[in-house]
Design a protein that fits this description.
Blueprint (H helix, E strand, L loop, with lengths): L7 H9 L5 H19 L2 E4 L1 H16 L10 E5 L26 H9 L2 E6 L33 H8 L5 E5 L6 H7 L2 E4 L20 E5 L2 H11 L29 E5 H4 L6 H16 L3 E5 L7 H16 L18 H12 L2 H14 L5 H21 L5 E5 L15 H6 L5 H6 L3 E8 L5 E8 L4 H15 L9
Parallel strand pairs: 2-3, 2-4, 7-8, 7-9
Antiparallel strand pairs: 1-3, 4-6, 5-6, 5-10, 9-11, 10-11
Helix pairs in contact: 2-3, 5-6, 10-12, 10-13
The protein binds glutamine.
Length: 486
Amino acid sequence: MKLHELTIEQAGILLKNREISSMELTRAILARIDAVDGQVGAYLTVDAEGALAQAQAADLRLADGESTPLTGIPLGIKDLICTHGLRTTCASKILENFIPPYDATVVARLKKAGVVIVGKLNMDEFAMGSTTEHSGFQVTRNPWNLDRIPGGSSGGSAAAVAADMCLGALGSDTGGSIRQPASHCGVVGVKPTYGRVSRYGLVAFASSLDQIGPLGKSVVDCAMMLDGIAGHDPQDATSIPEPVPTFAHIATDGLTDVVVGIPKAYSAAKGLDPQVGAAVERAIKTIGSLGARCVEVALPHTDHAVAAYYVIAPSEASSNLARYDGVKYGFRDKTQTDLLQMYRSTRSKGFGAEVQRRIILGTYALSAGYYDAYYGKASQIRTLIQNDFKKVFATCDAILSPVAPTPAYPIGETLDDPLAMYLSDVFTLSANLAGIPGISVPCGFSDDGLPIGLQIMARHFNEPMLFKIARQFEQAATLTNKKPSL
Ligand code: GLN
């Protein structure tokens, strides 16, 4: 097997046994990026020099027997997570030259564990979008079919993992942005419980929804990365001081004690591609044959999730993005001499169309006289969705559903139709509104060879249940070994 094709689990064993060095592995990844990223466009910044220095340090640690399970492993980071001294753009012109003076907590933890950070990955600008076409810099292509979107907003992360340009990656998920690109690129992606992973140093989009999580080639790899980043952080007021289990110790005791809920209305959802429906049906059967008991459940307010999310997320964004005014950092239109003109021009030139649309929507929804009708109503729907899940999790341990209604669609298809793009988030938004964890695990391919993902959701802080079901499904379905041909 080629070095760049290794999983984190496999590479970890070889590194620990000193059969390979982190230097060799990192060089192989850099060579792979050179060979295929011209076609895919996943990376915005490759830090070859930094990566090789980190690899050298990791090899010393490995030699001293002071390694962690992630020491020497080359990972990519979505470009909205701050990396000290390494450009962090949020794929926005407004932050094109922003070099953070500090590391996000997740990055600091990974560095402490001895990870090699290869570079920063493309995304929809400020994580607003589901296709990665809304990057201010470049389009990322789906490695399985270069004419298709990789999904988004963590499209660079998913594509880089699928194309073996890193062993794993971090993304962020505000409304599906880890799970949906994972599904479209045939990799595993985890949105942890809100509060499980620190958001300190994650550039804010919608703070009550944002959560950092891993994308990997296998369920175990994602569990290993989550082990590296999870846990309470006093620097993030919403980080929760819950005990953190070792996620990589995935239960292997079968699924006979597990009850899975199937939201029947989901399979009748408008716009669900029959091939996606069929692949998810097959996955449910497989999970049943592994011993899980399947029950039908009702999540009656899911229908309103898209409407509620697309008020709440833009509202929070309009507030969070007010800081980009050209004064303290980021792009400033220096041709303007009047202060208000400078603000206006900086923001008009610095933000792309989708981000401007969100700011306008959110500012409107929060404005005096409209607040109750929009933001207030959306918050009430959010509570109803939370209550739906509470009721359902009294009767089952996990919920199975599609991730995205269709396989990856052609690049350009929703560029002029933002509503169509928003509607494709129907299955992923509820988990963010409720704060519960979710995973996307590959469950099949469409007739034209595009990956399809299965979503599993569980109670707050029950990521171990996601890993347990997903791992056993992954072993039974043996889909994660297939590779895109680049
Ligand atoms: N597609 C959703 C949006 O555009 C979700 C994005 C995300 O999770 N960051 O807002």
